[in-house]
Specification:
Elements (H helix, E strand, L loop, with lengths): L3 E5 L4 E5 L4 H10 L6 E5 L5 H13 L2 E5 L2 E5 L7 E2 L1 H4 L8 H9 L1 E5 L12 H9 L2 E6 L2 E6 L7 E3 L5 H12 L4 E5 L5 H12 L3 E3 L6 E4 L8 E3 L4 H13 L3 E5 L10 H6 L3 E5 L2 E5 L9 E3 L11 H8 L5 E5 L8 H8 L3 E5 L2 E5 L8 E3 L3 H13 L2 E6 L1 H4 L6 H7 L3 E4 L1
Parallel strand pairs: 2-15, 3-14, 6-7, 10-11, 18-19, 22-23
Antiparallel strand pairs: 1-23, 1-24, 3-5, 4-5, 7-9, 8-9, 11-13, 12-13, 15-17, 16-17, 19-21, 20-21
The structure holds uridine-diphosphate-N-acetylglucosamine.
Uridine-diphosphate-N-acetylglucosamine binds next to helix 1, helix 5 and helix 6.
């Protein structure tokens, strides 16, 4: 297994273009199943989670090839309506294929994606919504066996939690269902809007994506289309944390500032200067950061849970105390014990983490246990004095494309070994 060896304490400088969004690419790849032809997706990041989606599409019988950052997916011919457990277990969000498969085939068989490194991640909302739309779903021995006897029907669905994955599964299933589907308390994340934009480019009729109520008028079928994936706001937030923690000055390109509206104020509170211009942003960090005081993770447009871990590494070297409240997942502090090995002063009590900023972190050997936790350890190692070694890099590679090369291009000393 690869490790990162990081010689910390270097200032970063230069320009970085933000990769395409993982959380947009995954549901859009699943949605290509509805198009029965060749879709072209630009700005698709090279990640193990994207590869996992491509493996599922290929197993089903689709063709997929990559030309640099462009993916060409041909879902014209398919052979199977099942996904084997080894592919389902490669990533939790493979559940997003459920809506797409029952919409395309009226059948789907797959194993339960189960829990993950963030604690239990139920899919009850996905299943109850698809049942309301006419899918019969049997759950036995960890398997989901779904059949639609007639056709999927539009339904009025109210989500108790604005679940991103459930909203996406419903939107995909509803795109070609008979009648109108209304999702109340829908997730409002930019990735939901990107999925709607892709589906609408294919001929779907989806209104209100990005708002709490999404209305989907089912159409007969969808046609293949081309689409550019939005930039990854979490990768941007991670690199902002890396720049801030190392007292650096970095120019970001290819971002959508509106997607960072809850993130930018945290960096300003910490004393960073942020200048926005079109799709660009310059972040200049002070010599010593101030603590951002309070960070509460919330559904969009609140502060993203995915940015909690990398921003905690920044808070670990800020002057003063920062309180984090993790409202989205039960077990999202696995990076804390490793940050403490690097010299951070952090205490966790339930969903609250209290970070007492220290002047500097010290190098150590640490291990990542999840994707964003891995990113947090890299940020911390970049500002720690001395050489750190980070294992568990396979988690990082689920969401960050060539991260060691990106950081090296900014002047960091990071080697993947
Ligand atoms: C997506 C993102 C993930 C992000 C999360 C929250 C992708 C591929 N992943 O995950 O990076 O951290 O949104 O912004 O886009 N829940 C239920 N029942 C369900 C579904 C969800 O109880 O059927 C709960 C979850 O346990 C969690 C909360 O709802 O506590 C939010 O989950 P959800 O928005 O569904 O996250 P994901 O779509 O899994």
């Amino acid at each position: 297994m690869a490790v990162y060896v990081v010689d910390g304490g270097k200032r970063l400088s230069g320009e970085v273009k933000i990769q395409g969004s993982k959380n947009s690419a995954l549901p859009i790849l699943a949605a290509t199943l509805l198009c029965k032809g060749e879709c072209v997706l630009f700005n698709c990041p090279r990640l193990s989670d994207v590869d996992a989606s491509l493996s599922i599409l290929r197993y089903i019988g689709c063709k997929a090839r990559r030309e640099d950052s462009t993916l060409i997916v041909d879902t014209g011919s398919v052979e199977r309506f099942e996904i084997p457990p080894e592919l389902m277990h490669r990533m939790r969000s493979s559940i997003i294929f459920l809506g797409a498969m029952i919409a395309r085939f009226g059948r789907a068989r797959m194993s339960f994606p189960g829990g993950c490194e963030l604690g239990p991640r139920p899919i009850d909302l996905h299943l109850s919504a698809l049942r309301e739309m006419g899918a019969e779903i049997n759950e036995e021995h960890g398997e989901l066996d779904c059949v639609v006897n007639d056709t999927l029907r539009g339904a009025s669905l109210s989500l108790p939690i604005p679940s991103v994955g459930a909203t996406e599964n419903i939107m995909i299933a509803a795109a070609t269902a008979r009648g109108t589907t209304v999702i109340s308390n829908a997730a409002r994340e930019p990735e939901i809007v990107d999925l709607a934009d892709f589906l609408n480019a294919c001929g779907a009729k989806i209104h209100g994506a990005g708002e709490s109520t999404v209305v989907i008028d089912g159409v007969r079928d969808l046609k293949p289309a081309s689409h550019a994936i939005i930039p990854d706001r979490i990768v941007a937030a991670t690199l902002m944390a890396a720049a801030a923690a190392t007292g650096s000055n970095i120019h970001f390109t290819g971002i959508i500032p509106a997607h960072l509206e809850s993130v930018i104020p945290v960096f300003r509170d910490a004393g960073c200067e942020i200048a926005l211009s079109g799709e660009g942003m310059r972040l200049s960090a002070p010599y010593r950061l101030r603590s951002p005081k309070l960070i509460r993770t919330m559904p969009y447009p609140g502060f993203p849970t995915d940015a909690q871990a990398p921003v905690m590494s920044m808070a670990a070297v800020a002057d003063g105390m920062t309180v984090f409240v993790e409202n989205m997942f039960l077990s999202r502090y696995s990076h804390v014990s490793e940050l403490c090995r690097l010299g951070a002063d952090i205490r966790v009590e339930g969903k609250v983490a209290v970070v007492d900023g220290v002047k500097r972190l010290l190098s150590a050997k640490v291990r990542a246990h999840d994707l964003r936790g891995a990113a947090a350890l890299v940020v911390a190692a970049l500002c720690a004095r001395g050489q750190s070694e980070i294992s568990g890099i396979e988690y990082l590679e689920r969401g960050y494309e060539d991260f060691e090369l990106v950081l090296s291009s900014l002047g960091a000393d990071v080697k993947k070994i």
